[in-house]
Structures are given as structure tokens and as C-alpha cells.
Amino acid sequence: MASFFTIKGGKKLKGEIEVRGAKNAALKAFASAILFDKPITIKNVPEVEDIKRISEIIESGGGKVEHIRHGEYKIWGSITNHIIDPELAPRIRASIVLTGPILARLGKVRFPHPGGCVIGKRPIDVFIDGFRALGAKIKTEKNFYDVSARKLKGAKYVFKNVSVTGTETIMLAAVLAQGKTVLKNSACEPEITSLANFLNKCGANIKGAGTPEIEIEGVEKLKAETYVTIPDRIEAGTFAILAAATGSKIKINKMNPDHLDILWTMLEDMGVKVKLNKECVEIAPGKKLKPLDVKTHEYPGFPTDLQAPISTLLTQAEGQSIIHETIYEGRLFWTEELNRMGAHIAMCDPHRIVISGPSKLRGREIESPDIRAGMGLLAAALIAKGKTVLRNIYQVDRGYERIEERLQKIGADIKRK
Ligand code: EPZ
């Protein structure tokens, strides 16, 4: 039987917690292994389900992933199969990032359309247009894309929509292309900068990552090096919000506070005490929680991946808050579960909710619809009176390493059953 969490709410958290490596940085580093002749080493990898899934796909294509020790992997990306396994691909949407390096190395890639999911439609037009701009031919047949180009050619490409994995995929494809690629309207997330820094360390020539305009001068070959995964800003931000929601004082270690400037501003506006240090942040309760208007936005705006936990926090603020989710059209429906726990949330349209607080939340049986909503519900369970059973925790395990053990250490009453 699938496991679930039981959580007894109402306990304050205390002490220190360490942030793991960023899943969404490590996944892209795994994909980059395909660009190399020799194996690359990746450190500070979170031990989460999505990492297992991407490893399975790399291995199904003929590569090899060796788990050296906790958080450390060696990856032989010398895959021979240009077809991304249609059974495995839908299990992890980030598998789309593999298409760039496979195309660059094998001259062709075949993959299934990833399809929509619970958080939204999630189209892939910017990937396809990007490949086409680099000179690839695209054929679509039933649910599959066949992309081919004997040698990709550098070009100017403007993203119609800012896309994190889109930027990473086209950047990975362009690294070994002939000539110069200029990507405009690129995403600026720290995971992209980190990937570019790693590739540059290996001999690539990428300028401007972390800004909307990225310039890539193609190189012949990359030299295998070690990638150290940056701290997970979403996990760090979630811990800060959990502390604020439970009125607790905690210290969050091994993180980069600069990646969450907007969150610190928002928490301070709410009345939460935030002390920033070089690689850690201390969170302490203020007098009362004030409401807030939050608009999710591409980096450095408020991350959509923190929308769920901050929505839960705002159920505890005195007054009306508005959340405007601008990135995904399906990412607010999970708040119906919060209402079932006693929150007062009105949905204006699929992109906007109004939260009236403070609300006394009550524990109950709930299900986690996606990875980040799972953490929003877990936050609610930690505040709620009584016991909550949180099901479908595979979603939480996709991105948060043994979360229950780590939260237990800072005083949460949470068990995996
Ligand atoms: C990345 O997804 C993350 N995933 C997501 O985290 C995160 O929520 C998202 O960025 C936004 O920050 C990974 O890094 C693996 P997008 P991504 O392409 O790249 C539209 C997690 O599991 N769009 O930046 O898939 C799209 O519909 C996940 O950790 C197009 O229109 O997101 C959306 O509205 C949950 N056409 C917007 O762009 C395209 O071709 C941003 O999506 C591609 C995207």
C-alpha cells in the first residue's frame, strides 16, 4: 500500500535545518552529461524520486548512472538511443531537457509530447521553435516529435514565453553547435546560471546566463568536470514559510539567501522577523501576521513554486490577501483542500484567489495533487488542530529528501506510515 504522512499539528518548530541541493539544478546537470565523452560527477544531489526517474531515462538510452555515495553520482552520458522512452518520459516532465543534448550528440531525437498535468497545459512550443531556429527539421506523428539536424547551427532565437526548461534545453543544444547562438527573452533563474557556469568550467563559451540575453559560442568538445549542485531555493523558502506559519524560530543552513530576496521582503512586510547571513537565514515570529498581495513571476519575482506554502501562511494573517498565479492556470485548485481544513479562500478565476484570515485550520484526510501543493498542505497540517493524513506523498518525495525525518528533528510531529 502506498505510504502516507500522519501529522499532528500545533507544535512549534525549533532548531536548525539544512537545505539540500536543488532538484531543478541537479536534473539539468544530469541531462548535460550527454554532451560529454567522459563521465561527469555531480555532488550535493538531493536523494529524491525525480533524480531516480531521470537516471532511469538516461540508462534506458544506453548511458550509466552510478550512485557513488549519499548525494554523489557519476554519470556516463554516452547514450546510443535517440528515442526517449515513452513509458518513462511522462513520469518526469523535466525529461524534456534531455532532448537538447541528445539532439546535439546524436543528430536526432524522438520523444513523446509531455502533455498537460494538474498544474496546467504545459506546452512545448518554445522548445520546438528553438530547435527549428538552430536548423533542425521537425516531424510530428501522432503523439511524437522527431527532431533531426546533422549539425546544429548557431542562430538568434527569441523565446515567445519565458521558460526555465526551454532556456536550459536550447542552451544545452547550442553549446556544441556550429557558430554563435543568441537567446533573447531567456529565463533568469539561478539554476540556469549554475548550469552555464558548470558548462563554462568544462570549456563551453556561454555569456549572459542569469540575464534575458544569453550568448553561446559553440565549441567542439567539453572536458568532463565535477558539478556541485546549488542549494534548493524552493526548499529553503518553504522552510522559512513553515517557520512563519507555525510562529517558530528556526535557522536554515546551507542555503543562498540571495536567491530569495523577494521572499524576505514579503515575509518582513507580513511582520515576520528575518535575519539574513551569508549562507543561512534565521526566522522568528513577529507580533501578528499581516496580509499580503502576491503575484507569482519569473525570477527574480515571486516563484510559483512557493505559491502553495505562502497561500497556507496567508490563511493565518489578519485580513484579506490576494494571490495572483501568473505562470500556471491549474495551480490554485489545490486550495479547495485548504478550505476543507477550515480556510476561507474564494477563487475569482483560475489565476486568482482571495484569502480571508486568520482561520483556524483543522486536521483531516487530504491528498497532495502536485509536488509544491503537497508542501502547502503539509504546512497546513503543521498549523492545524488535530491529526492530518496526507496521501499521495510520492509528489512530496519527488522533490524533498526524507522530509519527515528532517522536520522531526526540528520538532514537527510527522510520521511516514
Ligand atoms: C520549471 O518548469 C520548473 N521545473 C518548475 O518546477 C517551475 O514551476 C517552473 O519552471 C516555473 O518556475 C523544472 O525546472 C524541472 P516553464 P518549466 O517552461 O520549465 C509556458 C517542479 O517539479 N510555456 O518556465 O516546465 C508554460 O505553460 C516544477 O519542480 C509555454 O507557453 O516551466 C508556463 O505558463 C513544478 N511554452 C510558463 O511558460 C513552452 O514551450 C513557464 O513554464 C514552455 C512553457
How would you summarize this macromolecular structure in one to three sentences?
By secondary structure, the protein is of the alpha+beta class.
What can you tell me about this protein's structure?
With 417 residues, the protein is of the alpha+beta class. 29% of the residues lie in helices and 25% in strands. It is built from 13 helices and 23 strands. The protein has helices at residues 23-32, 49-60, 99-106, 125-133, 164-174, 190-201, 233-245, 261-270, 307-314, 335-340, 371-383, 394-397, 403-408, and strands spanning 5-8, 14-18, 40-43, 64-69, 72-76, 108-112, 137-141, 144-148, 156-158, 180-184, 205-207, 214-217, 226-228, 249-253, 273-276, 281-284, 293-295, 319-324, 344-349, 352-357, 365-367, 387-391, 413-416. It has a 4-stranded mixed sheet. Helix 1 runs parallel beside helix 2 (49-60), helix 7 (233-245) packs parallel to helix 9 and helix 9 (307-314) packs parallel to helix 11. It is globular. Residues 24, 27, 94, 120-127, 161, 163-166, 187, 303-305, 327-328, 371, 399 line the site of ligand EPZ. Ligand EPZ binds at residues 24, 27, 94, 120-127, 161, 163-166, 187, 303-305, 327-328, 371, 399.
Summary tags:
binds ligand EPZ, 4-stranded mixed beta sheet, alpha+beta, 417 residues
